Structures are given as structure tokens and as C-alpha cells.
Amino acid sequence: DLDTAKQELEEFIPHVRNISDSSIRKMAGRDLARFKQFKKQGIAVKFGRFSQKENNQIRKNIEEFLLITGIDSAEKLLFTSRYPEDKETINRLKADHLFCEKLSEGIPRPWRLIYYRARKMFDSHNYKGRYSTEEKEILKKYHALHGNNWKKISELMSRSNLSVAMKYSEIKSAVNYGPWSKEETQKLMHAVEEVIRKRIEKEGGNPLSSSEKSHREISIDREALYQKLPWTEIGAKVGTRYWRQCKQKWTTILTNKMTKGQQLYRGTKGLQAKINLIKRLYEMKVEDDNEVDWEELSNAIGDVPRAYVQAKFYKLKVSCVPLWQKKTFSEIIDYLFEEKLPELEEKL
């Protein structure tokens, strides 16, 4: 029954009571037995970003299922509604060969998250670049016609469901995309200060009165200034900026303060920073970006937040590595080391 399912799932998913009843019933059928098996093996249920190892396991599970069933592509398997003439046959094969169980094999996560990840990985409509002004207008028109039917809109626009939903959430909000005003910057700084103070008071169990807050400085670890901040909440407090803009702006503010305004990523300093970054990543010999100690890597550029280093690495791989979306993390690093590094060193 539902209460028992909630009680049993709560051991693996602490926030389960915030999930809808229909989703809990599905999780009880698809996930509970798997979670118990993982527990016996000493493996905890995971959330957050998928590792390269998990992505490879999803690819392996999909390939094996295609071989078993004879379905000729991952797109047909995961986006069956795009192929109405084959829909009945594919759905029967998925039911007969236990698609849910096969897809989630070896991955200690809720099935729904694995399914969404697989759809993102194998969607031919993904990674299509920025939206043009014309596309944004078309998206608004389709939303007026079809509401939040992202599946229908994604088919009409040849973009992924997630892409059109996220882009529309940006368009409909009163977001400013120009330079930050002094007032907006102040709002951002106050919002970040507020959430950090609340967190420290909660952890310390000693809330400050308003008068104490205005007169007393608080001592915090530097990492608390940029790690695991609730950006959606902060964006709502700022009001005129999307949460990603707030995160990027806060990283810029911190970087300027920590480096005393020095230009660390321009001219010869920028070339040296890129060289150092590539060398350090290559020396780490890690297979997945989740295994990278970005905090340690920040010294390759200077005394900067980890988000700054991650952003610079992202720009480096996008601008320098052909077909980077299809490469593993280690293949990207090898390419940068073997092909890009000599070019940067010669330029320096």
C-alpha cells in the first residue's frame, strides 16, 4: 500500500514524501527491489550529475536491448511516438523484454532519472545550438497553441523536450539580458548574503536578531561562498535575472575580489593559464569530470572560484575539440594535450 511504499522508499530517498502519489507507486514497482539489491552490495542510491561510467552503462544497456529485440535504433526505442507506423510493434517488444529493468541495470538511481538521461543522450534533436530570435517567436506561438505540451512543441521545432521547456521558462520571465545595473548587483549580493547567513545560523543553531546581523561579521569557509548555493531561490530574490545569470555574475564578483581585479585570463597570462589547466588535467589521469578536484585546479589559473575554472574548461573544449559531445572526458583531455597544447605553447 502507499504508506508502506513511502516508508520503505524513504530509506533511499529522504524527500520521498514530497513526491506525488502516482510517482511513488511507479517507484515502488520499478525501483524499490533494485534499491534493496544495491543496499545489499553496499551501494547507495545516487542523484545529481551522471558520471561517465553511468553514461557508458546506459549505452551498453541500450545496445544490448536493441540486439535482443531487433529494434534498429535508440531513437526508435526512446522516442517511439516519432515512428507511428512502428509504435505498436516497438511497445510490444519493450513490454515482452522488460525494457524498464534492462535500461536501469547496474545503475543505482531512480528509473525515471535514468530514462530522462537516456533520452537526452540519444535525442537527435539535442545540441542544436542557440535559439535565433525567429525561433523564440515561433516557440511563443506554439506555446500559445499547445500550452505546456512540450512533447508536441519539441516535435514541431525539432528540439528536445527539455530544451524547449527551459527556453520558454527564460522567455516568459521578466528577465534582463543586458549589462547588470548597480541595483541588480546589490540585490544579488544581498540575496547571497541572506542565504549564507541563514545556512550558518541553521547549522550553528544560534539565529541572530536583525540588530545583531547588521553589526556582527560572520566567519565562514571560503567554499561556502560559491558551493551548493540555492540559485533558483537567489534568482527569485533578484527578480530581473535568470538563475544561471545570477550564478555567473556571482562567480565574476568573487573572482574580481579574490584576484583584486587582475586580468588572469587575458594576453600572455591567459595563454599560460590555458597551458597550465590542460597540463594539470592531463596529469590527473581521471576518467570522468566528476572525479576532478576543481578546487585544487583553481591554482592553475590563480586564486579563483572553482566555477570560474569549470567555465574556462568548458569554453576550451567547446572551442577547440571537434565533436566534443561524442567524446569521453579522457578523450577530450587527450585531444587538448596532444593537439591544442603545442599550439598554445608556440603562441606563448
Give structural notes.
This protein is mainly alpha-helical and 348 residues long. It folds into four domains: 2-122, no CATH class; 133-172; 182-203 and 221-259, no CATH class; 267-347, no CATH class. The chain has helices at residues 2-10, 21-30, 32-40, 52-69, 74-78, 87-96, 99-103, 111-122, 133-146, 150-157, 161-172, 182-204, 210-215, 231-238, 243-258, 267-284, 294-297, 306-320, 329-347. Helix 12 (182-204) crosses helix 14 (231-238) and helix 14 packs across helix 15. The N and C termini lie far apart (67 Å).
What's the arrangement of secondary structure elements?
Layout (H helix, E strand, L loop, with lengths): L1 H9 L10 H10 L1 H9 L11 H18 L4 H5 L8 H10 L2 H5 L7 H12 L10 H14 L3 H8 L3 H12 L9 H23 L5 H6 L15 H8 L4 H16 L8 H18 L9 H4 L8 H15 L8 H19 L1
Pfam families: Myb_DNA-bind_6
GO biological process, one term: termination of RNA polymerase I transcription
GO cellular component, one term: nucleolus
